[in-house]
């Protein structure tokens, strides 16, 4: 165990911990931890070990626990670590006695340095007021695991005037987003996740109106990730007119290939407006019904674009070609379910060496096309993953990236590395 | 540029000879995407973990006209797996909260009981609960011999109306097919143990 380990962050890994005893592995004299994040761990942890660890690590600034840590136990942790700057709570299920609630309030009151708050699993409006004492200093609030309605969010946001980053579920609805626009003038980043992404019968969630409302109130917005079920070209044009400084624009209209629901036209003009207006755009994710025109616009205007994600879009090879030709700073291109084939793939021969990677899946690329690419560009790794039962000639999933180390030797059997030979 | 193509209901891809699959293929991809645009639904399929890049499932011709429920395209919408896993339990919890009550009858008992199967994590817990409820011993289950050495055996009626021995199938399968329970005793139970 590294004596001076300062950060343990297993946030993004889907770990299935079998024993839960890992916290006890930190030795008694280990006190250097500054960051401890196990928010996405699936299993229970030894709370005693956790409490002891938190108590003795006086430099701990970031603590993000998982769902297994109850509110009652959270209070004990907060009392040990009032100097935290970032907190991820465990379960926020409202199960406290009156006295316990008061103790929790007091504990939060002591945390004068908190600027980031997340977790809040199973939180309901009932207990949100316990957070009010720390809200005024919050710059990042992650409510993406909390099923809040619009009014509940509004009450909370009224306490958070300094918010710069907000992550929510679409349960808050357009009304909730209006509250964002009204209460958070300093907002720079908004992410709205779908609470029920796979249920098409749902008639709620957020629409174009919500994001438009945010754009009127939050002129500094430069990062958006928005999952919605309807959108219009006009709305997007308004949004970028209000907020021209977007660096990251990720719009996910959840029904693939869906047109502007008012005009029934493709969403080409929406993304045309985005790339024309937002000159600083670095990352773009497109969705909805899109023709090659979208890609013509992207190639023409998105000169600072580094990452592009495309799904269920485009009409022909020309679309992808426009992007490869026009986006001089392109580094990462990921494409799925688009009608781009070998002509498009091979038009980017020289381009791929200046890029970090290309991913194409469920497109029209063939094994022969990939072999040709590999042959022409020996400094690229061209990897193909085939689907069960697919045609021999189809290259179902293609991953292309430059490498000075040659083909990888640790690929699983499903990955075919094509060489030029 | 696509000036000439109409966008009323669908892109009429066949007419314009724009195909989303290789020529001659079974239009697996084509149906996936055009299906979505036509509001026709591809086959349901299981969700896949991981990032944004997967492929729609293969579809069959006869599904084109069926008003099938909206399918889940693999890896779409592009939500990270730890987030998906975090949200799903909400629905499952709501369903579980509703409970799954089934009747339990025992030969010779004056009235039936009811238990909520969802509160048990597996067969051992269920059997202990039954033993407690009816003040009897059910004994050890073995695949070969059923509940041998016991005066009682737990059985259940499945979706097909057949009476089955509790314990043969995986727990989840049992939960989804059990309609009612019956504890049988005496000679009937022994008969079951002899591979009848």
TrEMBL record, chain A:
InterPro entries: Leu-rich_rpt_Cys-con_subtyp (IPR006553), LRR_dom_sf (IPR032675). GO terms for biological process: SCF-dependent proteasomal ubiquitin-dependent protein catabolic process. One of its GO terms (cellular component) is SCF ubiquitin ligase complex. This is PROTEIN AUXIN SIGNALING F-BOX 3-LIKE.
From TrEMBL, chain B:
It holds the Pfam family AUX_IAA. It comes from the Eukaryota. Homodimers and heterodimers. It comes from Salix koriyanagi. Belongs to the Aux/IAA family. GO terms for biological process: auxin-activated signaling pathway; regulation of DNA-templated transcription. The lineage of its organism: Eukaryota, Viridiplantae, Streptophyta, Embryophyta, Tracheophyta. The keyword Ion transport does not apply. This is Auxin-responsive protein.
